[in-house]
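Review box. Two proteins, two foldings.
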Amino acid sequence: MMLTQERVLEILKEAGVLLEGHFLLTSGKHSNRYLQCAKIFRNTKYSEELCAALAEQFQDEHVDVVIGPAMGAVQMAYEVSRALKCENYFTEREEGKMVLRRGFEVHPGMRVLLVEDVVTTGGSVKEVYELVKAAGGIVVGIGSIVDRSGGNAGFEVPFKSVIKVDVEAWQPQDCPLCKEGKIPVVKPGSRKLPTK
């Protein structure tokens, strides 16, 4: 059964996913809000429900394996694959490039679903997409719990999410929070970063 948007928001709120402040995003942009989706995976009552809702959207794609980039989508790939009853892998960075290690292999013709907890620019997932394509795999789609791309991810395959969330993000030189200078910029999950 599909989750209502109200239920998804209730889960995100209950899990403490939405943070407010001044954040440096992976994309390099700044934002006044950050979705800390890792908190979803600290409790299976959240992750199971959200990942099953995402898996349901791809149930007719005959997925052989679900792949997520480390670290953010390792547990997510597992949960989505569990709902789809297939295998799951994760990619890792090696010398700055996404790679499959630990005996994980994509074979020609393998049907692959790529997942990421939050998609903003889709950069990490696009890297994994190219990796799978180069190995001869067929990417049947890309799924995320939260789509905050504003429709600008530009994937070549169907992209589905459990919820779309609009969160403002700015290039550092355009960031109103930097211009105010009151709230230091923080990279989520780490200590305060020096500002330039």
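Next protein.
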Amino acid sequence: MKIIITGAYSIGTYLAKLFAKNKDNIIIIDSDQERLEKINNEADLLTVCASTTNINTLKSNGIDEADLYIAVTPDQSVNINNCIIAHALNAKKTVAKVDDPEFMTDDSREFFRRLGVDNLIYPEELAAREIISGLKMSWVRQRWDVHGGALVMLGIKLHHNCEILDQPLKDICGPDDPYHIVAIKRDADTIIPNGNDTLKYHDLAYFMTTKQYIPYIRRIVGKEHYVDVKNVMMMGCGNTGERAVKMMPSYMNVKIFESDPHRVEVLNEVLPEKALVISADGRDVEELKNENIRDMQAFVALTNNTEVNILSCLTAKQLGVRKTVAMIDNMAYVGMAEQLSIGTIINKKAIAASAIYQIMLDTNVMNITYLLSANADAAEFVPVEGSKITQHPVKNLKLPKGMTIGGLVREGKGMLVSGNTEIKPGDSVVVFCHGINLKQVEKLFN
């Protein structure tokens, strides 16, 4: 597959390295040679130093043979114009990153689609959804719903009071049990488990279940004492924070610490009834105490500084806040944040990459989410008639190493999968993958 990316910034470089690992033919174009040299040392791809709007550059690098053209510069107008040009030059699919939520309405998306922009990605909105998902269930690190909750994946940190530790999985989540363990993050390792594996203290375990059994999962992992989130304190409120506040359920109350006076004025205009905006530095512990941080069930750190976000969440925990959410832009800090039990970790480039990765795959891939802490993918595939995955019961499929099937949705009903399950064409099948290319998995469903 040939992919051309314009913009060697955070999302573009992350995507380029991700696709290069899959052995795709990657070209990344940027006008800054220093940015290109950095990525050239980290991935096997072709870099081109040129203006991202240069038509001759696109032609000379085979835009007419490109399966996917991705425009992720900081300027949304440039991204949209580039996609229009790429489409006119016969690129098969185009994706543009935008920064304006108005572009994401159905009418706007259809308008741009007619112009040649096949897909629009707004990372701030995708990240805001992840934040809200993390806040709705204070005892869960990550939640992913399939078909409106017909199946639910829950990423849960396990502590001493979890009653299913140190037992073979075949004994605690067999065919008649209402959940499966589909992935385990243990220290620096990610495990796609089999029946002989066990759960250990401090594991981050990913459960697949159905919505009615969520209270049961909560009980067996020892999280019933976690209170629901109603009062939220947020430090730093840029576009992502603003989107998250607007998406918060009505029962949540939020206090925002914002140190930029101009931004405070803007927030008071756009969030007049949704939040109390405090013009102060959220790193000031006395200010946090004065604003009753001990009455908060959640603390969300969304500044542009990863280190500040991590340290602020640790401070909030020391002051009694159980649920914390941190924006972490530097991937090198993700593992450390996980070890420090920061809670829900938000990385915009990884979230945007999951959305773009889905576009790259065929149409029978309905949904993809990236399990940041586990460095794994969860994807929803729909098999076609005659596909390999439908030929045998699951136990006889000889699935690739690093892949497991978590469950499926058939005629709107979610169900877990056992070795005797036979997958049918049209099922929505949830697959978990670590260290395996999703394009390889996709072949089983085509």
